[in-house]
């Protein structure tokens, strides 16, 4: 596939004519492409892998892009690649009026100032929905190292600190502390690498585990699941939050240590009944994390509260966009 010549103008070209929206395209040189929000992640992976690329932020390949973004801002590989919003550089966005507008660009960095794209992606569907996303893809690594670290709370904390502050931090795809009901917590680390580099990574992890007082072993390969609840917190509170949720719900919780996020894995038969039975806990949790800039997302999250100071501003935006 030949590289397309990019002729797009800036994001102020929010015209009704389809010619001003992002057309279908795939650029293996710039490692970007346009994908429907309803596309299963597997479709994205299939297209990208044909060119030695991938989209690393995923839970379940059978679930759509919009399904992933509705349940969490972050995925386990966000330790290295950041949140979803850092990997969406443009989109065709449908306003509540039904009009579709173009937001963002086809290059990773193109403008400065207010970031409308991030605002919309974090608006929880209040101001419309994404129809197509321009995704930032990554090189597909041919090999990986996946390890499990066990130890007491002090040893795991030391390991977390050494991994976060070490020179190898930017090469760690995911750093998760796993909490399971009735079991001691442990840390899982995954690093994707080139063939022949595995021993270099293993030497680093062995020495770091020794310094922290942890035991190290090869991790079991278990598929990730879509979280029913995602809690954006801070790096210094994420472990205690994961423990509390694990004890409260009696399920598996994954703490993304580098991102300050807790992902709650829970098979909920009757979602409304679950939310009602845990309403007090969930509302208190939402207020707690909101007090230091966090938030809850996912099917089990309570309806977010609206700051009274923002209501008038939001109403004016909705009116203005409704007139577009």
Q: Would you summarize the structure shown here?
A:
The protein is an alpha+beta fold.
What does this structure look like?
There is one protein chain. By secondary structure, the protein is of the alpha+beta class. The protein is built from ten helices and 15 strands. Among the domains are: 9-139, 2-Layer Sandwich (Uridine Diphospho-n-acetylenolpyruvylglucosamine Reductase, domain 3), CATH 3.30.465.10; 143-217, Alpha-Beta Plaits, CATH 3.30.70.240. The strands form three sheets. It has an eight-stranded antiparallel beta sheet. A five-stranded antiparallel beta sheet has the order 1-2-6-4-5. A two-stranded antiparallel ribbon has the order 3-7. A hairpin with a 6-residue loop joins strand 9 (174-179) and strand 10 (186-193). The chain is globular, with a radius of gyration of 21 Å.
Main attributes?
10 helices, five-stranded antiparallel β-sheet, Uridine Diphospho-n-acetylenolpyruvylglucosamine Reductase, domain 3, 324 residues, Alpha-Beta Plaits
Series of secondary-structure elements, N-terminal to C-terminal: EEHEHHEEHEEEHEEHEEHEEHHEH
Structural class: alpha+beta
Q: What kind of assembly state do the chains in view correspond to?
A: single chain
Spatial strand sequence of the major β-sheet: 11-8-10-9-13-14-12-15
CATH class of the domain at 9-139: Alpha Beta
- Largest sheet features: 8 strands, antiparallel
Whole-Å distance between the termini?
A: 37 Å
The average pLDDT value, as a whole number, equals 87
> Can you count the helices?
10
Dominant shape: globular
> CATH architecture of the domain at 9-139, please?
2-Layer Sandwich
Task: Summarize the amount of helix as a percent range.
Answer: 25-40%
Tally of DSSP β-strands: 15
Please mark out the parts with pLDDT under 50 across 5 or more consecutive residues, or reply none: 1-16
Compute the CA-based radius of gyration: 21 Å
- CATH fold annotation of the domain at 9-139: Uridine Diphospho-n-acetylenolpyruvylglucosamine Reductase, domain 3
Give the DSSP E fraction (strand runs of 2 or more residues): 15-25%
